[in-house]
Amino acid sequence: MSLDQLMPPLTAVAIMLLVGFPVHEYSHALAAYRQGDRTAQYMGRLTLDPRVHFDPLGGFMLVASALLGGFFIGWAKPTPYNPVNLSGGRRGEAVVAAAGPASNLVMAILGAICVRIILAIPALLPALTTPAGSFILNVLFYFVLINVFLFVFNLLPLPVIGLDGWKVLLGLVSPMTAYRLRQLEMQYQQFILIGLFALIFFGGYVISPISDAILNILLG
Q: Which of the residues 12, 20, 25, 65 is marked catalytic?
């Protein structure tokens, strides 16, 4: 890819690091706070300040995935919370876990609305043929794309470090099923890191079809 082609996705990545990731982690912290747990607040994580949420490896992975093409993967510093303090119990923990991916979906919807509005106004169409107009539209598209990918990626119900989907699953199933799943997680925890690397390199085959379906709904 040329530099001109790389600028829109890299700009969208910068927006994600400054806005998207902080919103994701803040959503986790806010969900926990509203259920009685103030761990994130005490640790200075109940904020939209991107500096306190930044994870060097997760940020690097997002930039690298943008440069390599394919699908986007990245993460911020996990938000701390104490499940014992949550008023909702296991269901409350599922709500906290789901709050982050839900924020990605909301940001994707907002970005898609902006794209649809721009394309629906005839007076703006000539401006989209200019380099500046095309750049803005592409940045919005990549912003939607990244958020959809992260929404799907985070909700994968796999016992991989950092994924919210596993905690959502444990909160939705029966107590006995949750106990058995936790036992399996502990039994095979030595393979979790291997699973993370496998997900990074081969996750696109699982994530892309789901993301494409969501993008078709959002963008047409």
A: 25
